[in-house]
Amino acid sequence: MNDDPDLPLTPARPDQTVSAPGLMSRISVVWVVPLVALVVSLGVAWKTFQDRGVPIQIAFSDAAGLVPGQSVLKYRQVVVGKVEKVGFTNDLTATLVTVRLDKEMAPYIDKDARFWVVQPQIGFSGISGLDTVLSGVFIEGLWDKTFTGPAPAVFTGLNREPLGAPPGSGSWVRLTAPDGGSLIEGAPVLYRGITVGQLRDLRVNETGDGVVIDAFIKAPYDKRLTTSSLFWNTSGFSVSLGPSGVKLNVRSLSSLIQGGVEFDTPVSGGQPVRRGEAFALFDDETTARDSIFADTTETRVALSIYLDGSVRGLKTGDPVNLSGVKVGEITSIGIDTLPAPGGSQSVVQRVDFAVTPERLGLAAGADRADVLAFLSDEVAQKNLRARVASAGLLGGSLVVDLVSVENAPPALLEIDAKPNPVIPSTAPEISDFTASAEGVITRLNALPIEQVMDSAISLLDSTTKLIGQDDTQKAPGALLALIADARGVIAAPDLQAAPAALRGALEETQKFMADLNSAGTVGSVGGAMDRASAAADAVTASVEGVPRLVETLTGLGEKANALPLDEITRNAADLTATLNRLAGSEEMAALPAALSQSLDALSVMLKDLQAGGATGNLNETLGSARKAADAVAEASARLPQLSEKLEATIRDLDGVLASYGARSDFNTETVATLRQLRTTAASFDTLVRMLQRNPQSLILGR
Amino acid sequence: MDRARHSEEALTARAAGLVGCRACGCVSPVGTATCRRCGARLDPVHALSLQRVWAWMLAGLICYIPANLYPMLRTATVGSTPAENTILGGVVELVHAGEWAIALIVFSASVLVPIGKFIAIAVLALSLRAHATLSSHRRHRLLEIMEFIGRWSMVDVFVVAILSSLVQLGFVVQIHPGPAAALFALSVAFTMLAAQSFDPRLIWEKDQGPQA
């Protein structure tokens, strides 16, 4: 700044250094920026223009779902172009879709390129094109590397996806059938139950008397195809009623709804198929497989038979069997007149059929002469005859059987007959199902079913009545009471006391006899011996009664065994318990002692007698002794039984004690019942006697 | 009228033989290289500054044209083919969708403002050459508005940036910025630079320059 105060207020005007007007100083360096931007933009624009695809035009019958700018063209599921415009052809008969195809794909588009619109499809055999639900409809293209010709200006789009477009992906054959059956477009082609292809383009043939169907079989299954392959319809389901019963045949659900075709190559030797090879479509598998034998290339020998009787139901195509194996089939059925024995003419049924030599067992290549020679031999030597027979479950269908008939009247194969050689026939063997059924029913009617039923009913009634009777129902109870009585009798204390007394008495007797011996009174001994003998006889007599009693008791025991065991056992247990108490009681214990004492007294008395030496009253004494012996005999008669019962009682007792234990309640009650038992013992005795007298009364309840 | 009078009376730094610092406003004698106070470089007013304006504007314009032709957004949603939207296409779609308010915002931020800016810069630059019908005050006002509003053009770029970073739902929705986003951002940046390099001193000095 200038410090001079005299200077005017106007600011100083310093010298401006003006640089040389060079190019660089006159043009800002910033201009580089728009230049670069321009270059880059132009470059991008150029690249975009360069990368712009090639437009192709495709005519579709309709362009459903195609959106310009959005829908794409795909090749093997990769986007290779975009729909630019959807318009119409000049004549408005189709839509014209302009697709901008990627540049690198453009060289491969030639005249064989195919385009179709992929749309979601839900069919019986599955869902396809599901991806288009999300992404929208797109065009799929298919072409390959080989150049076949320049691309047309407008491609014609297909209505649906072509099958087997890439070479080697399958084979096309053509099926012919009298009608379309239940087949529809897209129905599956099966091979052993597996879907291996599709039917396409079902159409009526040119003459209008049949249909033609294109079938595509995917690789590698098309390897199974030869010219001898068979195709048959598997549509729906089939029910067949044959000799083996009812057979229901359903293939896949898909084929049930939309039909289907199955194929197989049962015989070898076929040639590889050409594209579009024609095959006949059979109605079912059986027909198809039978058709192998109906092959026109095979030799078939026509024969005839004449049927005397009227045979209804035989029809063309029915099998002709030899030994149950089909060797041919009926070709026609007609009427013929034959000269009758009386000079007149008779009308007979003529059945023509054809047999295949191979099936007759003749060598391959056998001709008509071989067949006729064979049959002629069979007819002449083995009585081969033709016979109409029924077949099938109900005998409804008929076949012609060639069978050997024994004792048939001799006949020959009429080789020269016109129009065909005639095989002699025999009477038909037609099972009359209705007649058989009627016979069965007649026989059923004849059966005395009603009488049998009446008898059975009355028997059952009687049984019911018997069972229902009060007496019958009471029987077991009565038997129980009987057993209880018997036990009571046996358990009587008198009886139980007897053995000890008996032993004492016997000992005394022995002693007494010894004394008698030693006394030397021989004179009277004889008489005494007689008495003693008589006493012994009495003992024997009374002992003889024992077995009977034992028998009775055994019988009683057997009856008892058959009775309701639970209750009986329980009662028996109670009884034995009672008996046990009885045996253990002081009275019982005292009883033998008392007996012993009285016997001791007897002994003393006898000793007194011995000591007294009073031979005079020996007789009286012996009489007393005999009485005593009688008593002993009576007592001893019951002895074995008693010991048995006592043993049983002790056995039972052990079990009862084990189960009951030492329960005071039980014991006291047992003692109480003991007395009741004793009082009723007498009445039981009478019952036992009554039973012995008349055992049947128990059973019959009288 | 008032402003016109003001302009008549004002003394410009140039007329006083000074050069103003654009950073801090301190004036220094003409020829000084750096500001005495803040040390910023002192640019003498000369025609090159106007060239810079033109250059930046042209660059912005070059970028703006493809920015409108190329897609701004690539949207891939499940159930449709990937959609590409240009700026105007997006506006049209918004209008079709009934989103008038958003359409208006996008349209003004992406179309009206940039184009207005180009026009404003062009008008300002041209007005320095020919006989301007605009007064200097109006021109200055215009410059202020342009600078203020210019930054809002970036709204569109931000929308794209935010969308493409937030909306990445994989299979369901994917949004990617298109080439136009970068171009548009460049264009906005260039026009901002153009507005920046416009030296407001030129407005006033043009009026007084001949007198001096």
Automatic annotation (TrEMBL), chain A:
UniProt keyword NADP, yes or no: no
TM stretches of this protein? 23-46
Q: Which UniProt keywords apply?
A: Cell inner membrane, Cell membrane, Membrane, Transmembrane, Transmembrane helix
For this record, the Gene Ontology CC terms, alphabetical, are: plasma membrane
Enumerate the subcellular locations listed in this protein's record, separating them with semicolons.
Answer: Cell inner membrane
Q: Which Pfam families match?
A: MlaD
InterPro entries assigned: Mce/MlaD, PqiA-PqiB_transport
| Ranges where the Mce/MlaD domain occurs | 53-120, 173-230, 309-402
Q: Does the keyword Cell membrane apply?
A: yes
> What is the recorded name of this protein?
Paraquat-inducible protein B
Species of the source: Rhodobacter maris
TrEMBL record, chain B:
Instruction: Provide this UniProt record's keywords sorted from A to Z.
Output: Cell inner membrane, Cell membrane, Membrane, Transmembrane, Transmembrane helix
One Gene Ontology cellular component term attached to this UniProt record is: plasma membrane
Could you tell me the superkingdom of the organism this chain comes from?
A: Bacteria
Q: Please give the start and end residues of each transmembrane region.
A: 53-73, 100-128, 149-173, 179-198
Instruction: Fetch the InterPro entries from UniProt.
Output: PqiA-like, PqiA-PqiB_transport
Name where it's found.
Answer: Cell inner membrane
Chief localization: membrane
Pfam families documented for this protein: PqiA (PF04403)
Q: Is NADP tagged as a keyword?
A: no
Name by which UniProt lists this protein = Paraquat-inducible protein A
Organism of origin: Rhodobacter maris
